[in-house]
Amino acid sequence: MKKVFVSRPIFPDVIERLKQYFEVDAHDGPALPADKIAERLADKDGAFIAGDPVGAKAIEGAPNLKVVSNMAVGYNNFDMQAFNAHGVLGTNTPDVLNETTADFGWALMMATARRITESEHYLRAGKWQEWSYDAFTGSDIHGSTLGVIGMGRIGQALARRARGFNMRVIYHNRSRVAPEIETELNAEYASKEDLLKRADHVVLVVPYSRESHHTIGATELTLMKPSATLTNIARGGIVDDAALIDALRRGQIAAAGLDVFEGEPNFNRDFLTLTNVVLTPHIASASEATRRAMANLAADNLIAGLGEGPRAGNPPNPINPDVLKK
Ligand code: GLV
């Protein structure tokens, strides 16, 4: 039987599925650092990974490794150059999380614009004594301009929701989306600078890469309206967190909603000193149904990638399909 490693506790029935095909070494405990993951991979044929780092050292130290399946759509935790060099297939879990993640982006944007958590903290602290005309006044979502940076599948799902709120949608992407999608979403392409100047609510949905590192930094924040909000449901590192903290402190933008952080879970604790942020622990895809769909899809990819099950040799979501041809 081939040997697989599972890097985090996951749904027990998904582990049972893997056990039908493989000898499973399932880690049960807090997240492992990169060197411990590498140790556990050394004698394995495959791995089920949930966002943990799999770098060149781990790949080089695991001569039998053929497939590493990520239970996430983003795969910046994988060193794809090393995967390709050693003929290791990487897989991810796109699509099944689009709607859930777009729902969450919307929730975070609305909570940020309407100061939901800030006002709840006030209530919980027993400070609510009387009504006031200007208590926690925020900015409207309906009728405002939504700026989506990253118009992939999740960005499109997010933009689709703007229709019900009668919003103008502008977007920036590496390349323009097809004209029929622009028409369907009533979305106008804009340069990043133009979008930042015009949008009332900016939402980031770009994958992390060297190119998207600090897409939003001090310079970009100066372009935004003082009344604008910034929501990041993409990845830590797309925003320069120190620059954002500075901008929020100085009121350069109104507020930010953040589900992802540089260095998470060890995020910049200065965020905790600010009232104009909504902070969540990387949970945009966390509905019960979607996490289950992601786990099963990651298992499908691993099983098929290692030549087992009904789709043997034809995993649904190869990141680097060329290695399958070799
Ligand atoms: C979550 O962040 C994912 O990439 O699926």
TrEMBL record:
Keywords recorded for this protein, A-Z: Oxidoreductase
InterPro entries found in the cross-reference section: D-isomer_2-hydroxyacid_DH (IPR050223), D-isomer_2_OHA_DH_cat_dom (IPR006139), D-isomer_DH_CS1 (IPR029752), D-isomer_DH_NAD-bd (IPR006140), NAD(P)-bd_dom_sf (IPR036291)
Domain D-isomer specific 2-hydroxyacid dehydrogenase catalytic: 4-310
Keyword Oxidoreductase: yes
Chain residue ranges for the region called Disordered: 306-326
Superkingdom of origin organism: Bacteria
Domain annotation D-isomer specific 2-hydroxyacid dehydrogenase NAD-binding: ranges: 107-284
Alphabetized GO MF terms: glyoxylate reductase (NADPH) activity; hydroxypyruvate reductase [NAD(P)H] activity; NAD binding
Any Gene Ontology CC annotation: cytosol
Annotated family: Belongs to the D-isomer specific 2-hydroxyacid dehydrogenase family.
UniProt name for this protein: 2-hydroxyacid dehydrogenase
Species of the source: Caballeronia humi
